[in-house]
Structure formats: structure tokens, C-alpha cells
């Protein structure tokens, strides 16, 4: 293998025969930069020799997925320790992405974490940890066992930083006191003589410089060893220049016996202020993951279950699928399940954002962590542990907070080259002051050099995007909108067209009995009794709607005999000795029943989007029954809200044009695309995209999945199928169309917040560097300003947690 050639092995999933292997092999060989690709069907793996300067593993994975197969990868999250600024995050990310077997690595400075997608054949989690350690940082794998360890480490680190800050402040205060005494306008302030002594100042300053400041030297050494530069390099350079120049003057004062102007306070106060800023920043960053902590706090800790006929209280992690769980009034439902006994109202606001309690009865599903308001419930556990709705929500929010928005790439690129440029500007500033502005005045030139180095730290730039993504996605989760990644949160603000699936999205998705029209000579109660009794044996959704509607009117049903379902036509049965027909015009005409009097009413009901069934009793037309899929109460308001913010709303359905137009008219949708086959929905979305529209597709069924993937943003209704939610970029937990506007609103708010942060972070450095270079900023003031910039960016991002809809 040549020097610039690498070999990688991928585990392939989804191959069914040798032809599949052949297809993948051909596809991989066509990738630019691939020398040779070999796919083994028996071993289900691919060996690829390639030029890493031209292509990478990510491209191979994309190619295999494009061909309709999958690459077996592991996604792991690591807690990263020791990062001080965006340059650190950048360096770790680059190092991990160069690791053979890693297809994608993303490092989040605000969360202090790394998400690594790797090929387990090529690389292990231990290799990832070693790579991070080699770069001079620490890594802990986040799993069920280690997540608490990582959290404890963070807490301990904050406590350690607090101790360092107090120690540093105690030693720096006398130096600050001495500095204040130098100014003519503060001559009235008493300064102890000892504080003015160079050796006392050295004794106070040295521990701050080398014990407290050790972390900056270590960080700078590791960065430079890996041929990069970060905030530690700037701080170490600036404070060392001040300290060692003061040390030189201190030694000089012994031989000259004269008073000298020292700068020990500059280095000590700088280190103290930077530690203070970092502490504020760490605490503020902790608040930005508040949404996750809130969600985790919702989980019940124990559950009362019935095993072997005995009622017992067990820890939540001991509940298994099919356990019978008892939930008393006022308690949290511990797991997802189905009600076996009892009825109650459940407060689901913590999951769906819906404030009104939802009535539940036998057969209804319940979500873990919701609150049982008033009745005793016996439920069968259907999902436990990581499978519960809340656990899935927490996972999605964590992944969204850990992912990168495309806008962050700009900040990463800038911060990657920022430090070397700043060092260059600082050196140039020193030369200009020392040679031209104040020739030979070394202290003045040194002060400007230190001020430029310190004020230019790119911490704020690195925090600008991730903190906003964390706060924005967390707040969105609280209102029932789950963004699956930072890129989706960013892209959503561009949406100008929303395509809605009809059934289950605009409508409730379940038909209900709406109209009963009785012909002369028949009684409504009698008609409903015999039709309901006949339909009771049918499993058709329309039949179920009729039966439920009849039961709601408290009409008792009897058993039918000689029941016969006629596909495409209706049913035939005998009820209480009466011959019953329920179905289409064709069915009744086949039995020579005159239905001419029904046509006018039937046409009117059908034009309203209702499904009409004619009823024949003993060879006579008895009347008609209509069912319809009812519109969700909130649909009209939600669609009006979308139109008000300038978004075009289109409804797409497989239903006939007349039914679709009727539903569209009810909710205020002007454009309806009807009679679309399931596989045609994605094509319709593509047509809209070709017109230059940014399309969001909203659906809830399996048949919506291709369109959800094709759209710029796919939104799945949370009450829909798992397949739709898997395919979508955003899940709307509530099943309410108002969540679409909420999602767009939160995206716009978050992007505006990111832009504000990036503007201030860049403006701060752009304005701060010339001011410092011009000599208008003392080094300690530059340090304070630098600390304030990071904290202000984080606090601005935290405003997203208070956004009102």
C-alpha cells in the first residue's frame, strides 16, 4: 500500500444476496479517491483501499446508504475535560476525525462533550479516549454507569476552580491595593509599606503565576506540542511577559537601590479575573442544560406492581414489560402502558405541553411520568427504561444539544486561525510602541502587548452557537417540539411552505357517526339499533364508528345472525328477524330496492366530505347513515396562524377531490392536492422544491415517511406511527398543528440569538483589539472585559429558556 493510501473495513447491513454485494462494490469503486473496494456477502463486510486526501469513511457510508443498505456504526458520547476555548474543541474534533474508523466526530464546547460515530471493527471507545488524552485533555465515556461520574467530575471541577479563585484573590488583593496607591488621585488611600516592597510582591505573585496559573502553562504546552494555539497560549504569554519583566526589574533594583515600577499585579489580577470569568461561565453553562435536568426529574423513582398475586413497591429499573402496575390518584404513571382497569384524567402537560388533563379509560395508552389526577388505574407496562416516551424525548433533546448547526462552522473556522493572528497583532503592537510611538519605553510597549493578547481570547466566539442551540432546543422540548439536531433547528427558520397530510394530521384520523337520515315509515332508534347490531361484527373502521356512535346514544345492541361482509359494497345480516343491508347504492340496487328519494341528501352529505351508507330493511329503503373523519379543534386556528406569518399551507391526501376540498374549506386551506398515492407524496414535495420553495412536510403515518425524508424539514405528529417519527427531523409531541408555528417560531428566535452572539463576540474582538493596541486599555481591564464577553454570550443564550409563545 502506498504512503498516502489507507484501508478500512465496514460492516454492511441489509444485503440479501450476492447481487447486493456486487451493487455495493460497484458503487464504492466509483467513489473518487477509492483505489479498490471488495464486498464480501458471506462476511457482510467491505474492504476499501482509498486515498485519505481525496475521500473519507463518511463518504463511503453515505454511498452505501444511498444504494439502500446500511453501515453498522456505533454512536458514543464522551464527557471532555480540560477545554478552555473554541480552539481546544476544534483541535479535539480534528484529531478525532483523523482517527481511522471514525466517520464523524463533533465536539461541543458548551456541553463539554464529544459525539463520535465510529466503525467498531476499526476503532474502539478506548482508542477515542487515548486520542483525546494524547491531545492533552481528558475523556469519559458517557453511558448509564459513567454519566453520573462525568456529572460529578464537573461538579468537583467547579469546586476546585472556586478554591483556586479564592486563593488567587487573597494573594492578588494586596497587589491591587499597592497598584491603586500609585495613582495621584488615590494618594489619600493608605498602602502598607510592605505591599510596595518588590520582594513581597514577588512572594505574593509567584504562587498565583505558577501554582494557580499552572493550568494555563500545561494547556499552552499541550496545544503548542500539537502544533496549534488556544486561549491558554495567550494567557500564558501575556502573564509570563508581565511577571518575568517584573522579576528582572526586582533583581535590577537590588543593584541600583532605586524604586522601580513593577507589573506583578498585572499577571496576578489577570489570572484571578480569568478564573472568575470561567467560574461564572461554567455555572451559566450548567443552567443551559436545565431542560434535560427538568425532564429527568419528571421520572418516577419507584412503581407499585403486582407479581405472583402480591402487591409490591420496586425501583423503576426493576419494572419489566407486561408487569401489572398500580397507579393511585395523584401519583406519577411510572412507565408507558395500556389501562386494564379504571378510568381517570391524566395531566400530560409535562410531555405534550397540553395544559388540559386528558380523560383515559380501559384500553387507552398512558405515558410514563404523566400524573394521574383522580382515579385508580391498573395498567400493563408496554415500554420500560430507555424505550419509554420520556426516555426517548430526553435522548432526542440530548442529541440535538450535542449536535452542531451549520452556522457554527463559520465560528469554528474563525477560532481555528484566531490565536496565531492575535499573537502576530500583539507582537506588531509591541514593536510599533517600542520603536515608533514611545521609542525605548519597554514597560509601555509591554502593557499594550499584554492587553492585546488578553482581550482577544476567542472564548465568546466558541460559546456563541452551542449555548443558543442548547437553550433553544431545551425550551422547544418544554413546549412539545423535539428538534433532532442543531441543523434542523437552523433550517426550520427558512421554511415558507407547509404541506399537511390530511388524515390524522388535519383531522383526528378516526371516523365518527355524524348524520342519521330516516325514511318515512321508520323510527331513528329502531334504525340505529338494527344497523349497530349488524355492524357490530365488522372490523371495518366505518363500522366501528357507527357502533360507537350508537352506543353513545345509549341504544342497546343485540346479536345479528347470518352476518355477511361484501367487500367494496357493505354488509348483509339478519337482526331480530329483519333482513338488513348497509352499504353502497350498488348493494341496494342489486337487491332491487328503490333509493331515488335518497340521492339529493346523499349528494349533499358526500359534498361535505362524509362517507354515506344506505340502509335497506326487509327490501325497503329505510334511511342513511353518514360518518366522517372530524377536523381537529385546533387545526383552523393553527392554519390561520401559519398564514399570518407568511407561510403557504397546502393539504395533501389520498382522498377524493370532493372530500379533500370540503376538509380544506373547513380549516381555511386554499390549495389541496388530492388523490395522491402513498408513493406519490414524495414526488409532490419534490415538485414544490423545484419551484424554489422551502418545504416542511407534516404527517403521521407510515405512508408519509418518504415525503418526510424528501422535504427540507420533516415534521411528524407525535400521536402517529414510530416509522413517521423516525423519518422526521422534528417531532410534534402534542399532535396539535399549532406546534408547527411553534417550531418555526423557536427556530427563528434561536437563529436570531445565535446571530446576536456571533455579532457581539466578533464585534467585541474587532473593537477590543484596536482599543488595546492604541493603549486605552490596561491589561487587567482587558482581562475583565474578556471574562465578561463569555459570560454575556451565555446569559444572552439563556434568554431563550424564557421565550413566551
UniProtKB/TrEMBL annotation:
Record-level GO cellular component terms: plasma membrane
Spans traversing the lipid bilayer: 165-190, 202-221, 233-256, 262-280, 417-437, 449-469, 757-774
A Pfam family it matches: Hydrolase
Phosphoprotein listed as a keyword: yes
Listed Gene3D superfamilies: 3.30.70.100, Calcium-transporting ATPase, cytoplasmic domain N, Calcium-transporting ATPase, cytoplasmic transduction domain A, HAD superfamily/HAD-like
Alphabetized GO MF terms: ATP binding; ATP hydrolysis activity; copper ion binding; P-type divalent copper transporter activity; P-type monovalent copper transporter activity
Broad class of enzyme this protein falls into: translocase
Domain annotation HMA: ranges: 6-72, 74-140
EC number(s) given by UniProt: 7.2.2.8
InterPro entries for this protein: ATPase_P-typ_cyto_dom_N, ATPase_P-typ_P_site, ATPase_P-typ_TM_dom_sf, ATPase_P-typ_transduc_dom_A_sf, ATPase_P-type_domA, HAD-like_sf, HAD_sf, Heavy-metal-associated_CS
The keyword Transport appears for this protein: yes
Family: Belongs to the cation transport ATPase (P-type) (TC 3.A.3) family. Type IB subfamily.
Protein name: Copper-exporting P-type ATPase
Biological source species: Heyndrickxia shackletonii
Amino acid at each position: 500500500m502506498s504512503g498516502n493510501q489507507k484501508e478500512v473495513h465496514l460492516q454492511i447491513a441489509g444485503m440479501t444476496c450476492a447481487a447486493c454485494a456486487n451493487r455495493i462494490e460497484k458503487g464504492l469503486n466509483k467513489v473518487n479517491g477509492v483505489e479498490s473496494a471488495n464486498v464480501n456477502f458471506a462476511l457482510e463486510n467491505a474492504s476499501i483501499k482509498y486515498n485519505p486526501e481525496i475521500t473519507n469513511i463518511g463518504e463511503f457510508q453515505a454511498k452505501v446508504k444511498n444504494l439502500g443498505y446500511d453501515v453498522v456504526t456505533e454512536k458514543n458520547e464522551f464527557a471532555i475535560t480540560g477545554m478552555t476555548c473554541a480552539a481546544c474543541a476544534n483541535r479535539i474534533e480534528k484529531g478525532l476525525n483523523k482517527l481511522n474508523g471514525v466517520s464523524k466526530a463533533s465536539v461541543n464546547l458548551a456541553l463539554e462533550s464529544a459525539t463520535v460515530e465510529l466503525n467498531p471493527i476499526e476503532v474502539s471507545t478506548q482508542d477515542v479516549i487515548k486520542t483525546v488524552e494524547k491531545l492533552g485533555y481528558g475523556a469519559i465515556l458517557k453511558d448509564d454507569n459513567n454519566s453520573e461520574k462525568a456529572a460529578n467530575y464537573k461538579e468537583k471541577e467547579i469546586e476546585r476552580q472556586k478554591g483556586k479563585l479564592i486563593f488567587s484573590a487573597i494573594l492578588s488583593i494586596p497587589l491591587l491595593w499597592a497598584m491603586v496607591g500609585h495613582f495621584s488621585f488615590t494618594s489619600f488611600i493608605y498602602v502598607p509599606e510592605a505591599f510596595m516592597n518588590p520582594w513581597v510582591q514577588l512572594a505574593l505573585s509567584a504562587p498565583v503565576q505558577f501554582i494557580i496559573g499552572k493550568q494555563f502553562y500545561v494547556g499552552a504546552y499541550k496545544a503548542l506540542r500539537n502544533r496549534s494555539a488556544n486561549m491558554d497560549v495567550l494567557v500564558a504569554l501575556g502573564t509570563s511577559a508581565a511577571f518575568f519583566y517584573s522579576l528582572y526589574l526586582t533583581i535590577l533594583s537590588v543593584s541600583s537601590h532605586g524604586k522601580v515600577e513593577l507589573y506583578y499585579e498585572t499577571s496576578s489580577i489577570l489570572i484571578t479575573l480569568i478564573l472568575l470569568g470561567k467560574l461564572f461561565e461554567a455555572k451559566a453553562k450548567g443552567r443551559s442544560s436545565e431542560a434535560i435536568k427538568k425532564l429527568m426529574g419528571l421520572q418516577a423513582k419507584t412503581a407499585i406492581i403486582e407479581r405472583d398475586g402480591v402487591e409490591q413497591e420496586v425501583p423503576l429499573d426493576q419494572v419489566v414489560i407486561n408487569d401489572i402496575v398500580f397507579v393511585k390518584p395523584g401519583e406519577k404513571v411510572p412507565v408507558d402502558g395500556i389501562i386494564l382497569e379504571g378510568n381517570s384524567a391524566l395531566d400530560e402537560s409535562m410531555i405534550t405541553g397540553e395544559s388540559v388533563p386528558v380523560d383515559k379509560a380501559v384500553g387507552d395508552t398512558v405515558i410514563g411520568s404523566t400524573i394521574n389526577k383522580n382515579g385508580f388505574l391498573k395498567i400493563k407496562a408496554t415500554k420500560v427504561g430507555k424505550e419509554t416516551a420520556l426516555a426517548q424525548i430526553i435522548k432526542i433533546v440530548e442529541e440535538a444539544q450535542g449536535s452542531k448547526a451549520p452556522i457554527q462552522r463559520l465560528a469554528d473556522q474563525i477560532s481555528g486561525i484566531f490565536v496565531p493572528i492575535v499573537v502576530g497583532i500583539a507582537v506588531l503592537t509591541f514593536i510599533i510602541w517600542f520603536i515608533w510611538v514611545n521609542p525605548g519605553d519597554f514597560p509601555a510597549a509591554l502593557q499594550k502587548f499584554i492587553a492585546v493578547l488578553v482581550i482577544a481570547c476567542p472564548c465568546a466566539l466558541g460559546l456563541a452557537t452551542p449555548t443558543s442551540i442548547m437553550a433553544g432546543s431545551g425550551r422547544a422540548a418544554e413546549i412539545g417540539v423535539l428538534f433532532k439536531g442543531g441543523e434542523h433547528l437552523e433550517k426550520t427558520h427558512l421554511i415558507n411552505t407547509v404541506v399537511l397530510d390530511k388524515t390524522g394530521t388535519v383531522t383526528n384520523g378516526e371516523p365518527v357517526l355524524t348524520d342519521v337520515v330516516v325514511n318515512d315509515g321508520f323510527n331513528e332508534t329502531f334504525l340505529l339499533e338494527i344497523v349497530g347490531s349488524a355492524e357490530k361484527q365488522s372490523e371495518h373502521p366505518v363500522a366501528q364508528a357507527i357502533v360507537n356512535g350508537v352506543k353513545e346514544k345509549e341504544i342497546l345492541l343485540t346479536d345479528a345472525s347470518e352476518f355477511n361482509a361484501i367487500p367494496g359494497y357493505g354488509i348483509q345480516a339478519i337482526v331480530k328477524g329483519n333482513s338488513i343491508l348497509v352499504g353502497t347504492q350498488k348493494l341496494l340496487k342489486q337487491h332491487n330496492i328503490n333509493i331515488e328519494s335518497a340521492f339529493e341528501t346523499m349528494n349533499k352529505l358526500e359534498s361535505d366530505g362524509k362517507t354515506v351508507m344506505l340502509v335497506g330493511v326487509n327490501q325497503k329503503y329505510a334511511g342513511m347513515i353518514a360518518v366522517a373523519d372530524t377536523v381537529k379543534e385546533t387545526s383552523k386556528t393553527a392554519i390561520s396562524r401559519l398564514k399570518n406569518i407568511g407561510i403557504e399551507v397546502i393539504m395533501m391526501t389520498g382522498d377524493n377531490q370532493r372530500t379533500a376540498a370540503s376538509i380544506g374549506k373547513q380549516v381555511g386551506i386554499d390549495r389541496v392536492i388530492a388523490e395522491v398515492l402513498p408513493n406519490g407524496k414524495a414526488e409532490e414535495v419534490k415538485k414544490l422544491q423545484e419551484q424554489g420553495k422551502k418545504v416542511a412536510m407534516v404527517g403521521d403515518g407510515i405512508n408519509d415517511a418518504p415525503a418526510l425524508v424528501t422535504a427540507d424539514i420533516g415534521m411528524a405528529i407525535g400521536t402517529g406511527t414510530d416509522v413517521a417519527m423516525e423519518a422526521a427531523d422534528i417531532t410534534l409531541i402534542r399532535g396539535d398543528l399549532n406546534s408547527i408555528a411553534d417550531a418555526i417560531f423557536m427556530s427563528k428566535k434561536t437563529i436570531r440569538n445565535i446571530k446576536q452572539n456571533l455579532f457581539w463576540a466578533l464585534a467585541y474582538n474587532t473593537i477590543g483589539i484596536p482599543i488595546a493596541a492604541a493603549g486605552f486599555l490596561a491589561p487587567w481591564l482587558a482581562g475583565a472585559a474578556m471574562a465578561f464577553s463569555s459570560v454575556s454570550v451565555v446569559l444572552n443564550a439563556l434568554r431563550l429558556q424564557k421565550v413566551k409563545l
